[in-house]
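By convention, the token line describes the chain's fold. To illustrate:
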Amino acid sequence: MSCSMFSKPPGVNPDLAEERTNLVFKQEELTYFLDGSKQLTEERRELENFFLNHKLFKERKVLVVETLSNEDRYNYELELACRLMIVAQEAEDAGHNHAIRGMFNAGLGAAYLPDGNPINLHFVMFLPTLMGQGTPDQISDVLGRAWNMDIVGTYAQTELGHGTFIRGLELQAEYHADSEEFELHSPSLTAFKWWPGGLGRTATHAVVMAQLTTQGKKRGVHPFLVQIRDEKTYKPFPGVLVGEIGPKLGMNANDNGYLGFVKYRIPLSALLSKNSQVEPDGSYISPPRAKLNYATMVFVRSAIALDITVQLRKALTIGIRYSAVRRQGEADEGQLEPKILDYPTQQAKLIPALAMAVGFHIASSTLWDLYNNVQNEIEQGNYDNLPELHALSCAMKVLITSESSIAVDTIRKSCGGHGFMTNSALPRIFGMISAACTYEGENTVLQLQIARFLIKSGKQALEGIPQPGSVSYLSNSFNHKPTVDIISDFGLVELFEKVSSGKVQSLLGSTSANPILSVETADMHARSFVVSEFAQGIASASVSVQLRRVLSDLFRLLASTWILQNAADFIRFANMDFTHLDRLRSDRDTLLQHLRPNVVGIVDAFEFKDEVLQSTLGSFDGWVYHRLFQAARDLDNSDERTPENNVKTIMEKLKSKL
């Protein structure tokens, strides 16, 4: 067989090249819009070039990790994590802002570690918790050592028996005034910490959340800085039971672990006491706000919203590029088989998800800005906006992870059998998103928390108390016009606000708690926020008429799709009827046709390099089949290799033992 058959042709697949000539907008203008400005795009590109052209990146061994043993995979990916950290530190020293943060996101960091980072929690939760919960005297020494990776930490909160219900955690931290020590003790198997990334083998230290008891009184859950392993030998200390929990659906680069304590003593200074303190005699000083001990989770949930949006955009890049080069179906005589992207059913699987990804990006960016603003307010002693931030971070975490999980699985299926291949990257992305549906707060439990916030806000709105930005529509809930505007962008926004406020009023009118209605209300509140931010983002953008039209089409497609999915609520609370729904259904189909010529250009504007996507189906050049075949050949599947074990040999061995 000719070797030329296996060789990837030069240049770009003509089918994909054709798609890139059809754009009605300037691709780079969309990139600037998504990044926030031309300057931010240039800074991102410079940082990417620094990372991807670094000798430590180019000299890395590229292995198929799924074929490695657990031990070999851990060693391989830990080395990559260390390489990545060195490059990030050099990038920071060279003036590239946010390089350290970039190494953990689903974009640039995935070029090194597409299945997660074994030191992720060290930077994403351990260090932020130290800075947010510890006093300067407590953390001055450990912070520098942790930043330089002399020690590695993790965040141990979730237990075998309790996760999102933090007040139910069982691990005990009893204070002994005679020795000025806390005694950590796991009273049951369900009190063992379970899931922390890096805990299995990597971490020497952990921020441990435990039930504090002083002077015989329970004080609630508090954070403690605990050394769990010797820094030289990495052996656990007596009284510390720690290890790995095993393979998972995804994120297998993270050595998730378990942790238990048997009457393990730690000093008084181990209590991170920026917000609450214990005196040497056991006297307890309460925090100014009880929620401050959970501030790390607000940060992480805000970061998750951004990160999962990136994962969704990666999956869409793969699915749309593949759909533009995959030809399948009956062809007219003398013609090629049609591209599967030309089928309306394929468009319906991909393009609404593309619209959703852009909406999620805009809304999660707003959330991130809000987080930073509220964090600055907290540093000044102002906690007024913390409840809204907590509820909104929960709402965005829930909606983005749940909807992205569904969307990526749909994208995988839309790629047929090839999407089932690990080397397509879609199974890996699905695993990463699916995990996010349950970590840092199980989604349904978070929705119940959001509903409680909405009930409180609804009651205040009825009393005439102005409500903050994300729930300000509740103050106008009785002033909504009965008319239905499905023509303008902000008319569609108002429909979502009507439904969300209507559901809140239903909750307020319930004679007893209604968990199912609570979940539905939280979901609609989150959708209302995304739709509102999407519309405002377009309205305030300084972009060309052509790009504005494309963005508006994406917005209208998202709004129409969500309305049609929740038609009963819009009929009940937003005065819509079947005529409106029929019009929106027709609009949706028209929008799919309008957007079809631009979808490859839109995902190209996301600017995921091949090194980041690591997908046989989603490469920029579109040579799908050559990459699939080469990936198979790289597994050493040569026809010259004879397996030492085969069916005949194994059968003979087994029969000889009978």
Summary: The first strand starts at residue 153 and ends at 156. The domain at 151-287 is CATH 2.40.110.10 (Butyryl-CoA Dehydrogenase, subunit A; domain 2). The mean pLDDT is 91.
